[in-house]
TrEMBL record:
It holds the Pfam family DOPA_dioxygen. It comes from Suillus discolor. This is DOPA-like domain-containing protein. InterPro entries: DOPA-like_sf, DOPA_dioxygen. It comes from the Eukaryota. Residues 15-34 are annotated as: Disordered.
Length: 165
């Protein structure tokens, strides 16, 4: 048995999806259906006592051009997204993060999508660790994390898991 629950639970007996190809010759036709709740709220696995996602923007403080870009990116994020929680610039490793960084928190799916897409094209030489907050810090920073740019190894020793051993 898989360690992952089926994502199709609740769709047993649903009409099969069509295999019709759209006029572009590549994509599949999807019949109209109800709007996903994921547009407006985070999945139930998220910790309701925390923000939804953390974005950790990494840079190499010893590389002057990167440090300057990170400083400007930090200011621009503060100006572009004043509704988000934005932490100070750290010029050295902190916690599980192996290099200088700053952190930005999002609180709903719209903010998360907007910041993610904005950082994809504006991150410059910086790399971004993006992770949810489910209450399991180790899993959030590793198994459930994604990266914009290059991946960095984390210091996992200080991250605690709530999963049974």
């Amino acid at each position: 048995m898989s360690q992952w629950p089926s994502l199709l639970a609740g769709y047993e007996g649903a009409e099969p999806l069509p295999t019709t190809i759209n006029p572009d010759g590549k994509s599949l036709y999807n019949p109209p259906g109800p709007r996903s709740a994921a547009y407006d709220e985070f999945p139930k696995q998220f910790s309701p006592s925390k923000n939804g996602f953390d974005f950790h923007i990494y840079y190499m403080a010893a590389v002057a051009a990167q440090a300057q870009y990170a400083k400007e990116l930090h200011e621009r994020v503060r100006r572009e997204f004043p509704e988000l929680r934005i932490y100070r610039l750290w010029d050295k490793p902190i916690g599980p993060h192996p290099t200088a960084m700053f952190e930005v928190n999002t609180f709903n799916p719209h903010q998360t999508g907007a910041l993610f897409s904005w950082l994809v094209v504006n991150r410059g030489p910086c790399d971004v660790l993006v992770h949810p907050n489910t209450g399991d810090a180790l899993r959030d920073h590793t198994e459930l994390a994604t990266w914009i740019g290059r991946t960095w190894p984390l210091y996992e020793e200080g991250l605690f898991s709530t999963r049974p051993s």
